[in-house]
User: What shape does this take?
Amino acid sequence: MAGFLLQARRRNPDEAPAEQVRVGFTCSKKIGNAVTRNRAKRRLRALAREVMPAAARPGWDYVLVARPGATVTRDYADLRDDLAQALTRIHAPRRT
Assistant: This one.
């Protein structure tokens, strides 16, 4: 997605409770100074709170990785749409 990178993986049954959804956030120094990184993390956390309850699947781990410039400057509604689309793509049935 343009505003961030979404990584996801299904957990093994022996790792953590299968009914939980775990979400992590990454903002490296490439994003900018501490103020910019904190702003990016706040936006990513707000996205996760808004979109993940409806679209994330229990038993999965997700990591939202901020992109330099885009995560902080992209319109919030576009970021929300990006996350919903990314989750749909991840959970879409695989073509063989």
